Amino acid sequence: MSRVYNFSAGPAVLPEEVLKEAADEMLDYKGTGMSVMEMSHRSKAYDTIIKEAEADLRELMNIPDNYKVLFLQGGASQQFAMIPMNLMKNKVADYIVTGQWAKKAFQEASIYGKANKIASSEDETFSYIPDCSDLPVSEDADYVYICENNTIYGTKFHTLPNTKGKTLVSDVSSCFLSEPVDVSKYGIIYGGVQKNIGPAGVVIVIIREDLITEDTLPGTPTMLKYKIHADNDSLYNTPPAYGIYICGKVFKWIKKQGGLEAMKEHNEKKAAILYNFLDESKLFKGTVRKEDRSLMNVPFVTGDAELDAKFVKEAKEAGLENLKGHRTVGGMRASIYNAMPIEGVEKLVEFMKKFEAENC
Amino acid sequence: MSRVYNFSAGPAVLPEEVLKEAADEMLDYKGTGMSVMEMSHRSKAYDTIIKEAEADLRELMNIPDNYKVLFLQGGASQQFAMIPMNLMKNKVADYIVTGQWAKKAFQEASIYGKANKIASSEDETFSYIPDCSDLPVSEDADYVYICENNTIYGTKFHTLPNTKGKTLVSDVSSCFLSEPVDVSKYGIIYGGVQKNIGPAGVVIVIIREDLITEDTLPGTPTMLKYKIHADNDSLYNTPPAYGIYICGKVFKWIKKQGGLEAMKEHNEKKAAILYNFLDESKLFKGTVRKEDRSLMNVPFVTGDAELDAKFVKEAKEAGLENLKGHRTVGGMRASIYNAMPIEGVEKLVEFMKKFEAENC
């Protein structure tokens, strides 16, 4: 067995320790005589798994008591509909469009009411976060929506927008648990787990209780009502049980690393290694405005598409995988989530230096 | 490590061989240097996994070319909405209500149009399948809906209903791949995989192409449109990738056993052992009309709730797990899906005989 350094944007690298435990428990979870995959979601053993996962997440994020934690299916893409269907009481919502995913969320909301694009960075290929200190927030907006870390473009809101008192809804898929967060500033904070937390197929929604109501838009499917899932502690129907089990292991792993403060320090250290090199490199250049850089996703280019392709190919041969940038940006992208060890980033920069020397 | 015989109704027992392979590949899938959980769903390695899974399923079920195979999320419960949202062009659908799941599907469809209950077996706690040879199928029905195997009540449609030319939609969650099936008789045949195929969090929808249209009900979320998933080969967004990988392994395992003919033989043999004993037992009694018995789920009672509880407790101590019946039926239920070995059923009957001798 030989492991590569996997810079995939998602699904993405998971802690080796977590995978080892999962492998060990695959045929017999803690003496139950069965795999977690084979376990009734109504069994005592599984009840402990999902309750512990929630408790650990609450502890890690310091989630206030008036927030529910829901483990759902369908990814962020399904939340794009679920959010307006549950929250658009006035049928008005404001969207800040900082990338492809925020744009998709905005377009989906337009099916259900008046979605306003109150800011955007599309004019410069989403390479920055707009100034959100004084936006024209709609008076009757049910919420203001952001995608907090933009996986494709490598930007991050380092300051939350001024929503002028309106509920903030944030997709944190690609920065989930990467640093401490003040949950009380949000109405909903949610994300697919397949970047920083677990296997694809689980989306975690942290939602303030007053936003969970019977009063959804007409035609909302039962499975798309927050209230159904909240009332049933995420067990209205069979949940993505194995995925939640892996998430739970990752929560414990993060706790062992020292929690979100420690994760932040670890992530800042890794990102600094890469950004510092990009800032001094003669060949490679970051594509994002400095003050808006993400700690998680680092796009960069040489300026020459052929050279980019050569880099990606040779990096792969050196055990540095999935460095190709998203098709809409081109170039390269290194996703350096929580589980990427510092050695992975060091190896990457070492390789970039070597490549620069050979090709510059 | 010691494995129990797990009679859970779902999530349920999986082939030990499949779990062993998954454990072995957990940290390094076939030399990729990563777990399938960590793999981009757009990677070559994953493309092979999902394509092979589909090809193997097509081969096993002999799926005609004019049917699409979709790997989706949200379970059968989400299909309860997705089906009417996509198929109810006339806003009329007929439901045959043979259990709790068919009833829930019927109720959900009522949100979207006129759902007619054209037959039901609720009068006798769903212990039989109604005669469906000449039902009052609505002239403008967009489809006729059944739940083909009723997990809770242990009944199975051994003859498909006469839909008088209307499209048949069938939930086969608890009999998926348990015997050969003529897919061409259905418009949609679908099921959650967590009973006979894989881990919870994947639902497989086999749908005739002419039913996949742009013309969905107003307000249908993008993620609930069959066309979006069909056009993107189940990769519109990140799929439940690890779950699909396990399903693929189970498909290969079934092929190795000899396909669905062999599965049927195996399942009939197992079921006969249990039903034959129930028919001669002085203590235990099956709850289902004989001609409607399921090969997969076998409910039985002693007629004495205390004795039932004693049986479940002592069986568990003997390594026979999850035999408690559903709360709406009481008594016991043995789910004996594909992956339950014949020895499991033999051990169960042996234990029942011993219990009968001690308590009768």
Label this structure with key terms.
homodimer, 360 residues, alpha/beta, globular
Task: Write a concise synopsis of the structure shown.
The first copy, chain A, is α/β, with parallel strands linked by helices and 360 residues long. Helices cover 35% and strands 16% of the residues of chain A. Chain A has helices at residues 16-24, 44-61, 75-87, 100-109, 226-231, 241-257, 259-280, 305-317, 342-359, and strands spanning 5-6, 67-72, 92-97, 114-120, 144-147, 149-150, 155-156, 168-171, 188-192, 203-208, 285-286, 297-301, 320-321, 332-335.
Mind explaining what this structure looks like?
Two copies of one chain form a homodimer. The first copy, chain A, is of the alpha/beta class and 360 residues long. Helices cover 35% and strands 16% of the residues of chain A. A seven-stranded mixed beta sheet of chain A has the order 2-10-9-8-5-3-4. Chain A has a three-stranded antiparallel beta sheet with strand order 11-12-14. In chain A, strand 3 (92-97), helix 4 (100-109) and strand 4 (114-120) form a beta-alpha-beta unit. Chain A is globular.
The best one-word shape of chain A is globular
N-to-C CA distance of chain A: 35 Å
What is the CA-based Rg of chain A, rounded?
A: 21 Å
Biggest protein-protein contact in the assembly:
A-B, 70 and 70 residues
| Count of helix runs of chain A | 9
Written as H for each helix and E for each strand, in order along the chain, the element string of chain A is EHHEHEHEEEEEEEHHHEEHEEH
Oligomer state equals homodimer
**Mean pLDDT over the residues of chain A:** 97
Major sheet summary line of chain A: 7 strands, mixed
What structural category characterises the helix and strand content of chain A? alpha/beta
Beta-strand percent range of chain A:
15-25%
Give helix % range of chain A. Answer: 25-40%
Low-confidence stretches of chain A: none
Number of strand elements of chain A:
14
Order of adjacent strands in the largest pleated sheet of chain A: 2-10-9-8-5-3-4
